[in-house]
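quick one, 131 residues, struct below
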Amino acid sequence: MLPNTSWHYYSVRIIRKMITEGLPDPWLIDEFYNSGVTQFFEEAILLVRAQSYDQACKMAERKARGVEHTYRNAYNQLVRWQFFRTIDCYQLPDAPTPGAEIYTCIHSTDRHVTAEQFLAALHRPFDTPPT
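---
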């Protein structure tokens, strides 16, 4: 029997949101506490095997929602990790092997933007506002 060739590997790019709620315990505040930061976003790429783009996105969302959790941080604030959004899906041309490219994204900029400026904007520290 021939294998089902309609199954493909997809890398699905998702965003998770981490929200901090409540006031910190004043006795626990230290030099690392930053009162201005109450949410973070995590970008992740999930590898799934599906029969279509839509199925791949749904599978990745289900997986991401399956690991949502809540905990108390070092300052006794409630922290919620939640799936936020699927932002991209890429069908791999072949089954992944070690060293295989599992995701690609091409960015465009104005010709006057230097590579250093592009990288600084793309990978700026979380506590630096965009320019």
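DSSP finds two helices and four strands in the chain.
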